[in-house]
Amino acid sequence: MPETPNLPTDGPLLRAPRHLFSQHTELQRRRPSRHKRPDRPSRISLVEARDARRAERQRLKHAERTRVETLAAQEQTAIEAVAVAEINARQKAKNARILLVVQDVAAGKAERDRRYAARKARQA
Q1: Angle 95-99-105 from CA coordinates, rounded to 5°
Q2: Does a structural domain hold residue 105?
Q3: What DSSP string runs through 3-53?
Q4: How far apart are CA 8 and CA 14, in angstroms?
């Protein structure tokens, strides 16, 4: 059996049969490493693409947040307009009732003054 270099001293590979370990190392040697770093231009393009995707996500989030805030502001404005209209309507109704009371009091005083003047005229 050929000697296998760099055997682990502990861990799951130590408990594995030797032929599986040698097959594993042979496959690792033939296969390109996953950890091998890509060349610099492709790394830069990957980073730029990732940054572009991140910027697009941020832009979409900002646009959605702005849209929601605008809708909320419009709803709040509509609610405030309805409240102001309701307050104005109540104030108008209150003023109309007050006007009726004042007119009734004025009519009562005018009638009283007319009766007083008529009685004075009869006495004179």
Answers
A1: 145
A2: yes
A3: PPSS--SSSHHHHS-HHHHHHHHHHHHHSPPTTPPPPHHHHHHHHHHHHHH
A4: 6
User: 37-68: b or e for each residue (b if 16 or more CB lie within 10 Å)?
Assistant: eeeeeeeeeeeeeeeeeeeeeeeeeeeeeeee
For residues 18 and 1, the answer to whether their CB atoms sit within 8 Å is yes
Name the domain count of the chain. Answer: 1
Q: Does residue 34 belong to any structural domain of this protein?
A: no
pTM (two decimals): 0.47
Residue with tokens 């890509």: 38
Is residue 29 in a domain?
no
- Residue 4: which of 26, 28, 32 has the closest Cα? 26
pLDDT in tens, 57-87: 999 999 999 999 999 999 999 999 999 999 9
- Domain hosting residue 76, numbered range: 40-123
